[in-house]
Write a structure and sequence with these properties.
The protein is 61% helix and 7% strand. The protein is an alpha+beta fold. It folds into four domains: 133 residues, no CATH class; 162 residues, Phosphorylase Kinase, domain 1 (2-Layer Sandwich); 125 residues, no CATH class; 89 residues. A hairpin with a 5-residue loop joins β3 and β4. It is globular, with a radius of gyration of 31 Å. The two termini are 28 Å apart.
Length: 549
């Protein structure tokens, strides 16, 4: 059950910031519209709807802040003005008690912090909505950071996400755009994401994989995980020393090659997505640093690997070909690839989709390439395809969000960044290598044992397939009978509802006829003195009305 105090606070915040104005009132049931009427007495003020939603999230605490951050990464679903306002949400959460932090570390690692570490800083290094970080030194002299999940946060998350799920179901049911926006799916994604963030061993495993992928790479450095000190709620990793990527003045002061830094960010993204198929999906500026060494050959440092993404081989292939087709303005191929990949229904008229894509992209491509946002072109493409019933592709949304972060960061570092000239040769090379004979031979060697293992089953599978084909006729007949039975049951339910309605009308008519006779008697009767049987009958009538709906 929800905490009553928590629910009251949420309702108060909802009313204070007039979040009811975000709801589609014309689609709400009458009783809910009636319930929201008193809110008209509260002035909305001069704040925009996005600012009101952002302030409400901040007032409601870290879970709603995280949810607001998630919504800010879904420009495919959320209006642009709300996305812009929610993008300003920052983790600025007061730290919890240092004694509690030490107790959690000691209970997880089975010893006191003074015995585990040669030095331990009891003052927090950073405090976020989900976890808190302290600095420490191991006995071998290595500097580390200790990350611990906030105590009791699972219960708060569970309560708040249940309430968010309830609100999302209402929005999906009563909003005209409910089915397209998929609010329930967004909340479910958020719940999965934030509970994944609570598992620090999962984050450590992601970091270890990324570190292995970029080991000895001049592009990206991932801190080392101290597995002997890492548990479900505690993570110990190498402490890094770098310049936050947002501190442009500090980067320029050490004579960092800003053009190369921006281009290397793009290269890291495409390397992760297409070569490694394992990408850091939370690369906002707070998680990215730049090494102080070799400013002429700048290297990124990434932290907080709780959220990662990957694509299927088919999505990789179709995404790369879509991007290349856009580079070449081959809108026909873009439309055909959307149909072939299954991103839009197979009965979609290709020429209509081609015309819609051309209408969106041609005005964009009339600008100089350096002024075109690759991420926004991809976003516009997906929005256009959605008019043709394109389903939301969660894996592509995560990738698109990461691309927007990387491109925005690159243009902040080097405003003249031409992402297209960096991406185009990379994609050409990747597609060429994909069909290289050596690559195909490697794939054959990788999957050959599995194919040989399954080969003896092929005759049996063929026989079963033929048997199922023979049964299709019987299944079709049974399905038709089942549909007829369901239709009869629905017809019977409608008849019962109609009979209940007639019965209620009869009761009401009889009551009207008897009213004149009983009016004088009823005037002299105290309602509170009516016998219990009368109240039982009234309750039964109410139940009958509800059942008759």
């Amino acid at each position: 059950m929800f905490s009553l105090f928590r629910l009251c606070r949420i309702i108060y915040t909802f009313a204070r910031f007039r979040l009811d104005l975000l709801l589609p009132r014309h689609n709400l049931p009458w009783w809910l519209r009636l319930l929201l009427c008193p809110l008209h007495l509260i002035p909305a003020g001069k704040l925009t709807r996005g600012e009101r939603l952002r302030l409400a999230c901040e007032q409601l605490g870290p879970i709603f802040v995280k949810f607001g951050q998630l919504l800010s990464t879904r420009p495919d679903l959320i209006p642009a003005d709300i996305v812009a306002a929610l993008s300003d949400l920052q983790d600025n959460v007061p730290p919890f008690a240092k004694e509690t932090f030490c107790a959690l570390v000691e209970s997880s690692l089975g010893d006191s912090v003074d015995a585990i570490f040669a030095q331990f800083d009891r003052e927090p290094l950073a405090s976020a909505s989900v976890a808190q970080v302290h600095a420490a030194v191991l006995h071998d002299g290595r500097e580390v950071v200790v990350k611990v999940v906030r105590p009791g946060i699972e219960r708060i998350i569970s309560q708040d996400t249940r309430l968010l799920h309830l609100l999302a179901r209402g929005l999906e049911r009563y909003s005209a755009d409910g089915k397209r926006l998929r609010p329930v799916e967004v909340v479910d994604d958020y719940r999965t994401t934030i509970f994944d963030e609570l598992d620090l061993q999962r984050e450590a495993a992601n970091a270890s994989q990324l570190r292995r992928n970029f080991l000895h790479s001049p592009l990206l450095y991932i801190p080392e995980i101290m597995w002997d000190y890492t548990r479900h709620k505690v993570l110990v990793m190498e402490r890094i020393s770098g310049i936050p990527v947002t501190q442009i003045d500090a980067l320029k002061a050490q004579h960092t090659d800003m053009k190369k830094l921006a281009e290397r960010g793009v290269e890291i993204f495409f390397t992760q997505v297409f070569e490694h198929n394992f990408f850091h999906a939370d690369m906002h500026p707070g998680n990215i640093f730049v090494s102080r060494e070799h400013p002429d050959q700048p290297q990124y440092i990434a932290v907080d690997m709780a959220i990662v993404g990957s694509l299927t081989r088919a999505d990789q292939y179709y995404l790369a070909r879509n991007m290349l087709a856009m580079f070449r303005r081959d809108y026909r191929q873009v439309a055909e690839l959307h149909v072939q990949s299954g991103w839009v229904p197979e009965n979609t008229r290709t020429e209509e989709l081609e015309a819609a894509v051309r209408t969106v992209c041609e005005p964009i491509f009339e600008k100089p390439l350096k002024d075109i946002s690759f991420g926004h072109v991809l976003l516009s493409l997906f929005r256009t395809a959605r008019r043709f019933n394109m389903e939301v592709q969660p894996q592509l949304v995560l990738l698109q969000k990461t691309l927007l972060n990387i491109e925005g960061l690159g243009r902040q570092l080097y405003p003249d960044l031409d992402l297209w000239s960096t991406a185009h040769p990379f994609l050409e090379r990747w597609l060429k290598n994909r069909f290289d004979p050596r690559t195909l031979w490697g794939e054959l060697k990788r999957y050959a044992p599995e194919w040989l293992e399954k080969f003896p089953e092929v005759p049996h599978l063929v026989f079963n397939g033929l048997q199922q084909v023979q049964n299709i006729g019987q299944w079709s007949h049974e399905l038709a009978l089942a549909r007829e039975q369901m239709a009869r049951q629905e017809k019977a339910r409608r008849r019962r509802r109609y009979a209940n309605f007639i019965a209620l009308l009869s009761i009401a008519g009889a009551g009207c006829l008897a009213f004149s006779e009983l009016n004088m008697r009823l005037q002299s009767i105290d309602v509170s003195q009516l016998p219990a049987s009368v109240w039982v009958l009234l309750a039964a009538a109410g139940i009958a009305i509800i059942a008759g709906r």
